[in-house]
Amino acid sequence: MVFQIYLLLAVWVIRKNSIKSIEKQSFIVVYINKKFNIESLVIVNELELVEETSIHVRSVANWVVQKMPGSQERAELIDFLIDLVFVDGELIDREFTALVRLGELIGVQSMYIEKRVIESRKRIFGQSSGESRLHEIANSGTRKRMALAILDLNTNATEDDIKKSYRRLVKKYHPDRNLDLSEQERGEFAQRFLEIQDAYEELSSN
């Protein structure tokens, strides 16, 4: 069902930045209850199942294209995700990059996403600082260079180079391999691990 697409992508986005995740989960339940008229308890149970699932955004995007053929439907999905990331007051680069990447996969232009994000920032902060930065991140060439840098690669890296560096860095920063570190160091390594995952996903989608 379409509401399951919303849940999958909502969890995928929350994983980019788990700040105020309880508030974000509450937002999801209220939104989906209102939009699809599904009981809150059912949504909560489905959400718990999705949170334990490995989410491959390209596969979910293919599902979106099949189940939501209208451009307005897809735009509403993006609007929901933008509102979700602003539950904690502001979005971070990783969230914006994820939204733009999803938009590319389902046919929602980055200019639309950028415009909606700027509108949300103006509504919250009453100003438009960072608009040029958002425009820069929305550029696929810039995102590719950022992703390569995160994987310790230059712009001449081959597909094989990308895979090798990804495997090496995942092994180094995987949470299960760093249990003996301090809490602060584990947090830093976990953040780096997520950035590596995002970078590889970005490069794999191009």
Could you write a compact summary of the structure shown?
The chain is mainly α and 206 residues long. 74% of the residues lie in helices and 0% in strands.
Can you tell me about this structure?
This protein has 206 residues and is an all-alpha fold. Helices cover 74% and strands 0% of the residues. The protein is built from eleven helices and no strands. It has helices spanning 2-14, 21-36, 40-51, 57-67, 71-85, 93-106, 110-125, 131-138, 140-150, 159-173, 183-204. The radius of gyration is 17 Å and the shape is globular. The two termini are 28 Å apart. The mean pLDDT is 90.
Rg from alpha-carbon coordinates: 17 Å
- Amino-to-carboxy terminus distance: 28 Å
This entry's quaternary arrangement is single chain
Task: Give the DSSP E fraction (strand runs of 2 or more residues).
Answer: under 5%
Indicate the overall shape: globular
Strand tally:
0
Count helical runs: 11
Q: What helical percentage do the residues reach?
A: over 70%
Largest beta-sheet characterization: none
Mean residue pLDDT: 90
Uncertain spans, ≥5 residues at pLDDT below 50?
none
Which structural class do you get from the secondary structure elements? mainly alpha
- H-E string: HHHHHHHHHHH
In terms of topology, how is this protein built?
Layout: H1 2-14, H2 21-36, H3 40-51, H4 57-67, H5 71-85, H6 93-106, H7 110-125, H8 131-138, H9 140-150, H10 159-173, H11 183-204
Helix pairs in contact: 1-2, 1-3, 1-4, 1-5, 2-3, 5-6, 5-7, 6-7, 7-8, 9-11, 10-11
